[in-house]
Amino acid sequence: MTSSSIGRAIEKEIVVAAPPERVYRAFAEQADLERWFVKQADIGSVPGERYNLTWLPHQRSTGRIVEMSPPHRFVFAWDVDGDASTTCAFDFIPHDQGTLVRLTQTGFGDGDDWDRLYEDNSGGWDIELGNLKRWLDEGQRKTEWFEEDC
User: What is the pLDDT of residues 85-99, one digit of tens each?
Assistant: First the structure.
């Protein structure tokens, strides 16, 4: 996995052993999201629709789908506080070993709270993209769930 920062953006890349069509579904379908990313996903099926993601009862995120271009690109706006949001764009690029997944998260502001969010998300994406790779390469589900109800 490679990563870099472009100003206040996060960019990460990882290669998974699956075709772009399969990788796209891992981002766009509830059943897949609940195997590698979150414990519970309520996700729309067209741009403009809202989504709700739950890791644990105290770890929830909302936002909206911005773009769905199967099997090449999936983009969502991730609500922060108030009216602020960041944008997460995932590009799925054919690769000789499967698919190169390129994440670019933009929209980070300035200040201590934004700095913490930037650092948390940068580290979090390293973990989550590793989970994606284990799911698509090996069929290994995310195992970090606690026995708490969402």
Answer: 999 999 999 999 999
Beta-carbon-side half-sphere exposure of residue 107 (alpha carbons within 13 Å): 16
Q: Give CATH for domain 2-138.
A: 3.30.530.20
Average pLDDT over residues 105-109: 94
Q: Which long-range contacts does 62-69 make (Cβ < 8 Å, 24+ apart)?
A: 68/28
Distances (CA, A) of 145 to 7, 54, 56, 60: 33, 11, 8, 14
Query: What global pTM score does this model have?
Result: 0.90
Please state, in angstroms and rounded to a whole number, the distance separating the CA atoms of residues 104 and 144.
25
Give residues with Cβ within 8 angstroms of 115, minimum separation 6. Answer: none
Token pair listed for 129: 């993209």
Strands (E), 7-95: 9-16, 40-43, 50-56, 59-69, 73-79, 85-95
Average pLDDT over residues 50-60: 93
Reading the block at residue 109, the tokens are 């502001």
Contact indicator for 54, 60 with CB cutoff of 8 Å: yes
